[in-house]
Amino acid sequence: MISDTTYPFRLPRLPYSYSALEPYIDRRTMFFHHDLYFDLLTPAGQKFPPELAEAFGGEDNWRQQMKAAALGLFGSGFVWLVRDESGALKILPLPNQDNPLSDGMQPILPLDVWEHAYYLKHQNLRSDYIDSWFQVIHWDGVRQRLQETAKP
After folding, report:
1. What is the chain's alpha carbon radius of gyration, rounded to the nearest angstrom?
2. What is the pLDDT of residue 66?
3. Nearest Cα to 33, choosing from 112, 124, 97?
4. What would the pLDDT profile of 24-34 be if each residue is shown by its tens digit?
5. Per-residue pLDDT at 49 exceeds 80
6. In what order do the strands lie in the sheet with 89-95?
7. Which one of 31, 54, 87, 107 is at 20 to 30 Å from 19 when CA atoms are compared?
8. Is 116 known as a binding-site position?
């Protein structure tokens, strides 16, 4: 994960083509920004993790909470699915470059709401971008991070 990064850093290759997430995330955005968090995106559909369904009352509730947090974040930043110090799962909107590690929380899934993440395809329609982002989440990768961050 984040703490396992060593230098010199080499940009990891994507396990799919830059256009594989179309029509949800366009090829140009993938080409320019795939180093940010695209290992948690995939063109193949996967099942929503039961642990998240339990924590948030189902997939629809989780989506509504993530979207509300992303639309409510003024300016640029990320909305994070995190595990807090007690082991609880939370949605944490943070402005700019702030991240959950600074607050002692473990990042699981980031939703990038910096304009560069969606402007080429969606221009200023952040809501449309968020709806597209939901379609390409790599739930197997999220499950792995849920396991990695679970308290023993």
Report:
1. 15
2. 98
3. 112
4. 878 777 765 55
5. yes
6. 89-95, 77-83, 106-112
7. 107
8. yes
Is 34 one of the annotated binding-site residues? yes
Please tell me the least confidently modeled range out of 39-48, 64-73, 81-90. 39-48
What percentage of the chain carries pLDDT values higher than 70? 87
CA distances, 143 to each of 32, 51, 108, 120 (Å) = 27, 9, 9, 30
Residue with tokens 């909305």: 79
- CATH classification of 18-149, choosing from 3.20.20.80, 3.50.50.60, 3.90.660.10, 3.55.40.20? 3.55.40.20
User: What gap in Å lies between CA 65 and CA 59, rounded to an integer?
Assistant: 10
Structure tokens at 71: 């639309």
